Amino acid sequence: MSTTKTFAADNDARPTCELTGKTAIITGSTSGIGLGIARSLARAGMNIVLNGFGTPDEIKATRSALPLARGRETIHDPADMSNADEIAAMVGRARNAFGSIDVLVNNAGIQHVEAIETFPPERWNAIVAINLTAAFHTTRAVIPDMKARSWGRIINVASAHGLIASPFKSAYVAAKHGLVGLTKSVALETAEHGITVNAICPGYVLTPLVQKQIPQTARARGLTEDQVVRDVILHAQPTRRFVTTEELGATAVFLCSEAAASITGAALPVEGGWTAQ
Length: 277
Ligand code: NAD
Description:
The chain has 2 domains: 2-203 and 244-268, NAD(P)-binding Rossmann-like Domain (Rossmann fold, 3-Layer(aba) Sandwich), CATH 3.40.50.720; 204-242, no CATH class. The chain is 45% helix and 15% strand. It is built from 8 helices and 8 strands, in the order E-E-H-E-H-E-H-E-H-E-H-E-H-H-H-E. Helix 6 packs across helix 7. The radius of gyration is 18 Å and the shape is globular. Bound molecules: nicotinamide-adenine-dinucleotide (NAD).
């Protein structure tokens, strides 16, 4: 774990808001959507626990570029989301560093695109572990503190594939549907404790996860990579454009706000109209 904390510049003059001084863990936040959400929560005044892979130089650069508010801090924790012991240790370290965990964003995820009959069992296991089981371990670790303070926000980054399916993504679709189910169940358990639990269901966002699956999808469907982008990815979304990490960061800030205190157990599509079709 990086123990050196990064502080915001003293001349930051942003007004305080309801999230100021609270602390968020965002899993898988060294890249893509998780990083976008971390940036938005930092801008809203929160302390940030980054998690995910990267070289020390990359992680240092990511931490330095976070738009932290005055007096706020960030740490990076390298816990592997496929390992229950590392997840428990990460939550413990975050609690030691900041005293409490107010917001948990379960975002870490991986993908593999292949027909079911040749889908490698070890890829299935890894996808279910990182995209679904990790959220069970993080959630059970943070709930006692949230209940004790009668306030908490848990956001699970599911997918449009938590609501509908596509071919050749059996493990991912199963894990994301499972994550939506976990969201609903924990929302019911915590509803009287000032805790909300929601899933965000993004459409396609142009991150390394999507860039890596373009050649896999081309192989699985017998298409060129250009055809995959035009006829599979953007064809799915009536807006015909990628969702942005900034849009997802703003959605997360809204779900953390008091204005969203009565939204719990929801699976919120942010997918350019994909699932309305
Ligand atoms: P990404 O590849 O850009 O980022 C994934 C992050 O997870 C990275 O920080 C990586 O280091 C981290 N990570 C991967 N395995 C990990 C592990 N074992 N332990 C800890 N961290 C790990 O991907 P992304 O597109 O930003 O995806 C983030 C989430 O959003 C995923 O859950 C994904 O399923 C979901 N999602 C993505 C899209 C999309 O189009 N990109 C759409 C819907 C949902």
